[in-house]
Amino acid sequence: MKQIPVKELIPGMVTAEDILTYDNKMIVPKGVVLTENIISRLEGYSIYYVQITDNIIDELGSPMIQTGTAPLSGVQMSMDSAIPHISSVSAPKSNKEKIKDSEQFKQFSESYARVEEHYKEMLSNSLYNNRAFRSNELLKETIDLLKPNGHEISVFDMLLNMHNSEDSVFAHCIDVALLSNVIARWLHFSENDQMMATACGLFHDVGKFMLPSGILRKPSKLTTDEFEIVKTHTIEGFHFLNRFNTIPQPVKNAALMHHEKCDGSGYPYGITGMEIDKFSKIVTIADIFDAMTSERVYRSAMCPFSVIKFFEDDGIQKYDMKYMLTFLENVANSYLNHTVTLSNGMEGNVIFINQGSYSRPVIRTNNNEIINLQEQYYNNIMALSNLKNVSIESII
Asked: pLDDT class for 48, splitting at 50, 70, 90?
């Protein structure tokens, strides 16, 4: 057993001890064969050193090197000559790598960057130079992101690979606009209403630009007083948009209501179900999903399945039930056939979504084992098990 810096880990090394976060939460158990995806996850958790066994395992599970002994084949080989042989074997590309290497993603990224820059320029000119706010122009550019070259793309795949820690409000607004458009289509809204939902998402957070920049970008937890200031962005955004007669009322309402909840637990006014604009209800779901799956300066991005679980646990009564159930079913299905890592260190593909338990699908692992996360969860409850339930940690 030896301690290895994370930057020097290579696929095939085996963990000699459980790898834990700073607050003692399990990341990778003892005895797991490291893959490129697991190693990259460790860096995201700010893990710097790992205890490793003396063995290196190949992708088929066979020992390749054992420190201090001859290789299994009987042919004398040094560690120095063996390691280049390991690194020369190219692992199959993950879903993320395939997406990022695709021409479609490159076109999307370039177009996205142009829309974000135009948004910054237009809003700055309107706020500080008293110029016209050409909202329709910006909305058209955002809609065009959905169908480059006339072919519809998977918005969730694209955004999952776009997210970074810059924490741009402009990027967040574009994300929420795209997600709101998709949700409106899932709900079978008319084309006009799909366009309206997109506009509501695009301008829902403009009030944040009226907040002190120090609070908006604070890397640590906000104080109670600071959070009260942040909550005013809903009213500030409404007042800003209300200056323009060309902006429809639902867009102004979304800026005001996107933090309201159907059970009255939201802000700024604590209104309930029927009082909340239908487009605002869509933006609320899109806003939370994007915020939680995006990186922030104070935390890593959450796995989409973890966010699905958050919605399941948070209480459906907080949201419009029809909108939420439609969203959960469709967003879970959008990750079918995606490769994921599990909390026990294993990897596999999502092969089936369990109805009513969307965060716990059926997984086929790399060794063809079938794991039904829903069944495993209920079995542990019935057995009063103290074992940690297996869950999806990340999409790769």
From this structure: low
